[in-house]
User: Fold this.
Amino acid sequence: MLQLDNIHKKFGSEEVLKGISLQVNRGDVISILGPSGSGKTTLLRCINLLERPHKGTITISDLSVDAEKLSRKDILKLRRKTAMVFQSYNLFANKNTLENVMEGLIVVKKMKRAEAKAKSLALLEKVGLANKADHYPSQLSGGQQQRVGIARALALDPEVILFDEPTSALDPELVGEVLDVIKHIAQEGVTMIIVTHELSFARDISTQVVFMEKGNIVEQATPKQLFFNPQQQRTKEFISSRISEWSYDI
Amino acid sequence: MLQLDNIHKKFGSEEVLKGISLQVNRGDVISILGPSGSGKTTLLRCINLLERPHKGTITISDLSVDAEKLSRKDILKLRRKTAMVFQSYNLFANKNTLENVMEGLIVVKKMKRAEAKAKSLALLEKVGLANKADHYPSQLSGGQQQRVGIARALALDPEVILFDEPTSALDPELVGEVLDVIKHIAQEGVTMIIVTHELSFARDISTQVVFMEKGNIVEQATPKQLFFNPQQQRTKEFISSRISEWSYDI
Amino acid sequence: MAEVIDAFWKLLPKLPLTLSFTGLALVGGTLLGFVLALIRIFQIPVLSQLIVVYISFMRCTPGIVQLFLIFYGLPKLLLQVGIHINSWSNFTFAVIAFGLHCGAVMSEVIRSAYLAIPKSQYEAASAVGMSYFQSLRRIIIPQMLRIATPVIGNNAISIFKESSLVFTVGVVDLMGQAQILTQRKYGITLIETYLAVSFIYWFFSMIFGRLLTFYQNRTERKYKIMARRA
Amino acid sequence: MLLDWDYMLSKLPLIIEAIPRTLLLVLVSAFIGFIFGFLLAIVRSYKIPVLSQLATAYISIFRGVPLLVQMYLVYFGLPHLFVYVNEAFAITFFPAEFNKMFIALLIFSLYTAAYQAEVWYSALRAVDYNQMEAALSVGMTLPQALIRIFIPQALVSAIPNFANLFIALFKQTSLAFTIKVVDIMAVAKMEAGSTYRYLEMYVLIAIVYWVLILAFERAFVFLEKYFSNQKKHRAVSRG
Amino acid sequence: GSSSNKDNGGAPSTGGGQPAAAKVTVLKVARNAVPNPPFSYLNDKNVMDGYTVEYLKLLDERLEEYKFEYEEIAREAMLVGVESGKYDFAANFYYRNPEREAKYLFSAVEYGYSLNSLIVKKDRDDIRSLDDMKGKKLTPMSPSTGLRTLVVDYNKKNASNPILVEDIDAVTDAEAVQWVASGKYDAFLTNTTVFENVNAQLKLPLKIAAYVTKEPIWVLFNKDKKDLAARFDEATKALIDDGTLPALSEKWFGVNMFKSLKDVNEQYKFK
Ligand SMILES: Nc1ncnc2c1ncn2[C@@H]1O[C@H](COP(=O)(O)OP(=O)(O)OP(=O)(O)O)[C@@H](O)[C@H]1O
Ligand SMILES: Nc1ncnc2c1ncn2[C@@H]1O[C@H](COP(=O)(O)OP(=O)(O)OP(=O)(O)O)[C@@H](O)[C@H]1O
Ligand SMILES: [Mg+2]
Ligand SMILES: [Mg+2]
Assistant:
């Protein structure tokens, strides 16, 4: 469904992605773990071509694009199949909460205003922000901004959603709620790629977990395998810093 | 050492802080927990007067300021006793990593350039970023920016450090390292107030935990008490969403 | 063509005057504009309103009227309080008039650049303990400059060309010299002289623009992907 | 040296009569310059090859050459050139005279476009690029992202600069008199020329300009408020 | 650059009212920065020269109690400056008319004349005076020239059938003669000497169709300078009577303008 082949990305002389290949099925939820600076955000940004990879191909359902010969049309098509939740939220500063969610529906999906509004409000309700509909981003707390970002992405009904640390600013209760929302969407067949530092979140949500380091995929497995029976020494080390806390009750 | 008395803050008609009082001793590490939008960030920002409270007094060691009669001099003095790590990092966009950390030392502490540089490099080393010293904020990953923010605050040797979700963008390994750094500093008698969503982090680091909701302090206690024997129903609910995972091995 | 070159050499001696005039008016105006902009940003009561009127007057009335006001009005005004400035050179009066005008325009340039810097940058500086002016100097102004360089270029070039108005009060600048040259010959060499004078104006505007672009590209590297990520 | 207010008042109707012409000059050229300037800025911002170099050259020339000279060269120089070309090639293709209003509009538009391009260029850099990325990630095309997200934010800081330019242009249109277009300043000069009441006429024209421009100045203030209201940008990313 | 006459000791003193007292008053004089040959202009040596300039020099020598200090500024600025009192008087071949008299003080004795003529294409015979210009087009005129006032005054008197004239910010003589030569306009109203000097260089097929006026030219004083104006009159009169100014006129205009228009016409050698 989503397939990455040998994605390379350099910043200047620094190679940040060193040939990433990944195969994701429809409805899969992939979590990407890895130390800070390992290239997780860059990988997500390469998938919707906000960052242009130097090499590699990206395939989403029937659309396959080669990084070395990108056309404007392909880029647009690809972006319309995906949606992204940014690590730093990136809400439209000139639009209020409701408009932030509606914007894509109206402009890209050509939905009627009233319909878009109803849908957006329903989503805001889901993430607990219906009462902040007319606030501007600058009037929202970090967690609130993050939830608007999530709602904005969900509203588009894309084939693939890319989440960049979608729960970093959320309190434990909300993390639980977002988890529910994501699980629900996954059941509808939407594919999701989630960069996260919360191992428990990854454990609870994903069908597959990918561990990245220094621009490479070190290990990929089901959560159960990766967390409780990692094959690589590096994975083991990374996981151990947190996993010890879990009551092995899964 | 740090004392807040009856701090009130409104945004328009919305009262975000409804009379917060807090007493912190020298070397204490206070964690503030609470749902998204409960006013945690606003409280931190009130302490160094980035946000002006409508009422209340703030006392840090010998300096006491009344929110209703602020003088420019008091504000500056207060800010020089504190340092802050922002939820959204807020690095100086026109300065590279090293300069971001040095800036305060040179301008505020009037330190010699060479000395400031040595100190800053040492701190960057501590947060694992010595090799990114000449990168600009726009070239850093989320976690890297957050660590620069932490180094910048630590460099100032303030009496109080305010952390706004300092580990939200950090992977578990780094969280452990930052925890070590913070513990180390606390031993030197620096007071710290940390807003966090990571209950385990709060548990491991703090001398006192404060639980806030809707602009009020719901409960304040030692971590042990608050996590394992909360007095308030609301606290219990909030904690339970996560705490169940912990192997009660403390 | 020979006439263009001839005119060019005859115009050239007036270049230092025009350049120094532009420089003085621009530097004075920028400093003034900065103060005005700060007062407006902080909305200091009374002063702020006065400045709005001042800016409005300076921007909206013709330059020649302002020049006459300073040239003829200011000495009379100051005489009332016993200050004699009638002996000042016309050059000085013209610099004052242009500086005041430039200040009004620059204050808007500066204010708009200030508005464009996210408040978070100022907050970060405050949190580090910088005083307001320290944060301006070290953090805010460098970032304002990055945004405002093209507009500063606009204004510098405008003043450079508008300075030709000083010929009205007898300061012979580039354009004044061009007029003298053409009128002396009853306008026979008008086009040639204007071509020469245009070349000089264009050349220096272009050099100045290049310098700004160079500065801009140098600083731009830092922001190249400005908050592309966070 | 008292001003003769009665005289001034008596001349006011003459000036008022010329106001529509001045407004036409200003509004049309400011609008064309606004659009064209934007295109130039986009071409430069995205470093589109060839076009970007052309834009740079264009801006440098129209910004650097005094407006008066531009007027002269086009209105008086071009016919000379055309006569020469017509004779040289034995054709009657090029006109020996232009419509003066058309020339004035053309020059003012081209001139102000060069300046407005720089304001646009600066404005586009003032907006955080992550806003563009957010819009693209939602699936907007570049023009959609520009119009709906980027430009409204860019305008906040650009409006004071556009106001500066607009007001400057308002007064610069008096240069149209060099090619016989009679605007309000020209009327003032003509009256002063025949009566030598320069002081009165200059004060009068200053007042007229001020009153006229004041209305536009207010409009710009309103626009600035409108866009910055929308943006609430000052505290964004406070987290 | 202003120059002032420093040695006024050797000048012959005329029988003025005041005794040759020690006190010398400095007069601020406004002159036109834009050249107006042959009245006043910067010559090739970058020194002010011309009929008006030489007249002022003579006057300065003659009036011992005054010392002139010159400043060259724009035409508008000269007038505003005299009005505001910044300058004591302005010299720039000014014509006289009632509107101006209301604003400034004119001396009683003119110091010279501008002989104005209509310039037409060589092959035209239909224009012999301003009256023949009815319904025809004069070249565009700048509002700050005195010649335009002549036409405006004429049109006021002949409102039913005015001379057509367009207004323009500024126009050079060279441009105007070319317009006439190209047939775009019917005639150019200008100072005779100016036309001769221009056409000496351009050699266009043009001719002087008629002398329109011999317009006296004046110095303009600030309204408060009545005494000064009186002293000027005395001195100017003396300069005319002793033949100094007529000689100056011969030098710059090739003709003694102080005679009647008819005499001038005769003196003038033209076909
Ligand atoms: N400038 C503002 N104008 C209006 N409302 C504001 C403004 N800033 C914050 N608020 C509101 O104040 C409340 C508290 O915000 P605050 O940022 O303190 O929350 P928080 O506890 O830090 O939340 P989070 O964990 O999500 O960061 C929120 O409901 C927010 O919408
Ligand atoms: N524009 C850039 N120029 C140079 N280096 C860059 C640039 N953007 C990112 N990098 C570098 O690329 C590396 C990977 O960055 P990326 O943002 O993908 O990390 P990440 O895995 O998302 O980290 P985090 O968990 O901290 O967000 C980092 O070392 C960063 O410094
Ligand atoms: Mg990242
Ligand atoms: Mg917060």
